Amino acid sequence: MNQGDGKKSYAQNSSHQMAVMRKTLPIVKDIIKEMFINHLTLFEMLENFSIADLGCASGPNTLLFVSEVIDTVHKLSNQYNYKTREIMVFLNDLHKNDFNNLFNALPSFYDKLKEKHGYEFSQKCFISGVPSSFYERLLPSKSLHFVYSSYSLHWLSQVPRNLDNKGHIYVAKTCHSDVVDAYKNQFYKDFYSFLVHRSHEIIPKGRMVLTLIGRSIPDPSSNDCCCILELLAQSLLDLVSQGLIRKEDVDSFNMPVYHPYKDEVKTIIQKENSFDLEKFEIFECNWDPDDQDYGYTDKFDKKRSGRNVANCIRSITEPMMKIHFGELVLDNVFERYEKRVANHLENEKTKYINLTICLKKK
Ligand SMILES: C[S@@+](CC[C@H](N)C(=O)[O-])C[C@H]1O[C@@H](n2cnc3c(N)ncnc32)[C@H](O)[C@@H]1O
Question: In this predicted model, what pLDDT tens digit does every residue of 33-48 receive, in sequence order?
Fold first, then answer.
């Protein structure tokens, strides 16, 4: 499953990720700087600086991140009078990701790089694609210095097996505790295996910065994470009551995501035991990506916010929903969803909780 499918959907969805990137890039830059200063000897022994962006998608954010990291390495190399080595960038996503879109943007990316840092430096930057799941091994042993992943790790490798979650599409306030446990266990398994695989690929003292959507409250059925999908489940049920889709089809549709609480993430990191947790930051952003800069009281526009949120969630869920329910019903579902979200936001401020985790390989 690829929630980044299609240029239109990505564009609608990218402003959330931009807001998140604005928060995490300073952290990334500080960490790379710290690596250069404190581990100079370690990294001097190596011919190159290798980074990977896991779950990179294929939109403008992907190369923006790469460009920021390359600029940082270039600046640090000059600052510390450090012979610039080669920079290897591995862009990973699922096979279905539009890597062609990404690769087509590379010639102009390299032209800009030459303009900014000169021909010689541009010849030392190697960008390649790694189409595979990050829940598998991706790269050779000890081949990476720095790993980044933004807004991808809350996606599970699969919907938990044998889920009995009638009338919902994710964890919900009224769902059975078995459903909660199944989602929790799947996340545990996936995130644990993500850490194991990266532990082989990252050199000692190498770093990872991971940002994913989580929750601020231990209870997984709390509003801050499951409400946005429960409103979608209710919109699907609206169509069931009109006879437009079958109840069994809603009962058998579940989202392969999980929004963990910070302690759940910390426990898995400790149990897996290959990484030290250096920093754990939590920040919020509004459901409506256009609403980031305004207080809810001054510029809140119910209709616009409902539409923006519905577009975001549609861009993420459409590929899966199209397969399960068919394309014809989707406009109807999301019209209802837009109204439900608008009414919800009018009554309750609701935000995404973002977890940014900085790890150092032991
Ligand atoms: C919301 S996009 C985030 C894109 C980008 N990192 C950003 O911040 O703009 C999530 C991406 O994660 C990818 N993804 C989900 N599960 C994955 C997996 N198991 N392995 C690799 N990529 C995955 C999706 O295909 C999608 O492109």
Answer: 998 888 766 666 566 8
pTM value is 0.92
Say if 205 falls within a structural domain.
Answer: yes
pLDDT recorded at residue 291: 67
- Output the six-digit token pair for 338: 């837009």
Any idea what the CATH number is for the domain that residue 295 is in? Answer: 3.40.50.150
Q: What is the CA radius of gyration of the chain?
A: 21
Give Cα 341 distance to the centre of its chain.
22
- Three-point CA angle 349, 354, 359, nearest 5°: 165
Ligand 1: which atom is nearest the Cα of residue 61? Answer: 9
pLDDT score, position 91: 98
Task: Specify if 2 maps to a domain.
Answer: no
pLDDT at 22: 86
- Is 1 a domain residue? no
User: Are 225 and 353 within 8 A, CB to CB?
Assistant: yes
For residue 169, give its domain range.
7-361
| CA gap 265, 277 in Å, rounded | 10
> Is 136 a domain residue?
yes
Between 49 and 358, where is the model more confident? 358
Within 6 A (CB) of ligand 1 lie 2-4, 17, 55-57, 61, 92-94, 97, 133-135, 150-152, 155, 157
Q: Which atom of ligand 1 is nearest to the CA of 1?
A: 25
Tokens of 121: 């430096």
Tell me, what DSSP letter sits at residue 218?
S
CA of 56 to the centre of ligand 1 (A): 6
Structural domain total, the chain = 1
Q: State yes or no: pLDDT of 158 exceeds 80.
A: yes
Tell me if 264 sits within 8 A of 213, measured CB to CB.
no
